Amino acid sequence: MTQSRFFWPVLGSVAVVVLSPVLELVTGEPAAYSFAVLGLLVLFWILSRMPRRRMGLTLGDGETHQMALLYPAVMIGVAAVVVYYSGDTAPESIDGRAYLGQILVMALVTVIGALLTEDGFFRGWLWGSLEQGEFGEFTTLVWTGLAFSLWHLPVVLIEESFRLPIEQIPVYLTNVYLMGVNWGVLRLASGSVSGTRLARRGTQRRGILVAMAVVPVAAGGGAGRYGRCCSERSSASG
Fold first, then answer.
1. Distance, CA of 183 to CA of 1 (rounded, Å)
2. Neighbours of 168 (CB within 10 A)
3. Which terminal Cβ of the chain has fewer Cβ within 10 Å, N or C?
4. Which tens digits make up the pLDDT trace of 158-198?
């Protein structure tokens, strides 16, 4: 019996969206959310017998890597200007050397982790399964972006530190979806997940530095509400 081309993409999408929060709720460990993705990635890779190159586990070209680095530079630069001119800033409070050291350590720790979880699954295996099923480029971009966004939904529902008011959740999910599509465009252009990894790492690590540099200082010292939010979410998502 011929297997439907929808089999692996649908199975993978449903499994990752459902099992990640279930595993966290069962274990009580937030880290289980990402470990579920790693387990599913390995399992589906073996079961579907997908070639490494189809999963994007190759080096991208130099031009795509330049684009990947330009994306977070522009995005964070615009955000920094907006926050700075809001008047709610304290750039003199930053210890540049200390924060830079923290960012470098986090980057080294998380680059491999995210490659084996979010990037490896959504823009690696899931992307490859859609290509293998001969879905078009537009469908692949939309599908992986939606799956990536829906995977983030339970986070703001079950984790206290990330919980959002109901009315803010659609905005949050739309933002995640657009980021997923942006990284998908890099995957499409290069045929590799290496470009998406650079863009994600640049966005998150530079974002932490900018936030800590320009956010208001809390009463007891340290980063204010913008900095805490950016730092916690970036560290958690890898």
1. 36
2. 11
3. N
4. 888 888 888 999 999 999 999 889 888 888 887 888 766 55
Alpha carbon separation from 226 to 17, 208, 214 (Å, rounded): 28, 9, 9
Q: How far is CA 123 from the centre of its chain?
A: 10
Helix (H, G, I), strand (E, B) or coil at 122: helix
How is residue 18 written in tokens?
């459902």
What pLDDT shows up at residue 230? 39
- Which residue type is seen at 66? Q
CB 67 within 8 A of CB 186: yes
* Cβ within 8 Å of residue 65, ≥6 positions away: 190, 194, 195, 198
pTM for the model stands at 0.70
Instruction: Using the Cα atoms of residue 223, residue 225, residue 230 and residue 232 in order, give the sign of their dihedral.
Output: positive
